[in-house]
Amino acid sequence: MAQHLLPTLPIPPAIELGFTTSESLKSYFPQLDLVKLSDPSLNVHKISSRTTHNLVAPPSSSFPHIDDPTEAWEALYPQGSVNPANTIPGGFGFYLSGANEFRSRLRTSKEVLMSYGVMFQEGWEWVKGGKLPGIYGGEGDSAYGCTGGRQGDRSSCFNLRLMWRAAGNGEVYAYLNPTPNNIAHLLKVPPSSKQNPDYGFSVGRGAFQFKPGRWFNIAQRVKLNDVGHENGEIQLWIDGESVIHVTNLTLRESTEAYIQGLHFQTFFGGNSPDWASPKDQRAWFGNVSGVIISQTE
């Protein structure tokens, strides 16, 4: 993938408001509120009690950019860890609603873009795969716990975390109501998509590839469908390049469902030992941003 330059957040021309923890991004988009990378500033909640997300100065990138984070949340993946609920917990997990004004407007917003940076340590071993943060939403508290094989209330939540796979191949791991229309549109995303037994969809596997030792900027846009219509959208950019775009989706069946923020979760797995981290490993997360997109209809 070609070297990216600022800005790496693909902000559309019409935005209502937004926030960022990146001073570089703020300099390019003065309309964004600059906030700290901290739990209170970003309304972090429902934190996994068995893991940490300490704020640290990350190591230097092997492929530096002017907007690389100078502080980041560090995720630890001990040898043998599979997920935060496993015998050996790894990674971290929480929900993030964004800065206060942004959070207060989510309830009535139809289209939102959120982004963050991630860097995997040099010498990273991918194994079979693992989870990365993504946008989530739904009807009130039903938006929580949308992953991991949940069978009930599939129409009342959506969760759009990412995954890394073997060799660093990336995908969106989508939990959407498995309507015939959603299934059809998700499964046709190139280069490879499939429906999984836990009700999640691997969408666009191999559309991009992570590499250790450098920062990647991940930006995700969600546009809610009008209730009763199949016109929702999901779009993903990596370092400013659109790599996945799915249209004609149903993300909600009620006006009570809304975009609630980022499910900021990462771990190796899967659940079984063959997914586990083969050694102690670290990744870093920073430059968290969010934008509410104006509707012109």
TrEMBL record:
<dbReference type="GO" id="GO:0016829">
    <property type="term" value="F:lyase activity"/>
</dbReference>
<feature type="domain" description="Polysaccharide lyase 14">
    <location>
        <begin position="71"/>
        <end position="288"/>
    </location>
</feature>
<dbReference type="Pfam" id="PF21294">
    <property type="entry name" value="Polysacc_lyase_14"/>
</dbReference>
<dbReference type="InterPro" id="IPR048958">
    <property type="entry name" value="Polysacc_lyase_14"/>
</dbReference>
<keyword id="KW-0456">Lyase</keyword>
<protein>
    <submittedName>
        <fullName>Polysaccharide lyase family 14 protein</fullName>
    </submittedName>
</protein>
